[in-house]
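Data availability (excerpt). The following record was deposited with the supplementary files.
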Amino acid sequence: MYSIPFDATHIDRRELNQTAVHELQKRGILQEGDLVLITKGDLIGVHGRTNAMKIFTVGDSQSAS
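Predicted structure:
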């Protein structure tokens, strides 16, 4: 598991998952076909309010949204 903190307040919510995946790919952590689990909360920038989880395969453009 990799926790990659970044300031999400300046990223469009609709692009947040894909932005995180691209960052991990740039760092050589993710490759096409890898499974990803993203946790996040409805309130961006508020710690301790995680209430959502998304699991998808890298490269499946429909799933990362």
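Summary of structural features: DSSP finds one helix and two strands in the chain.
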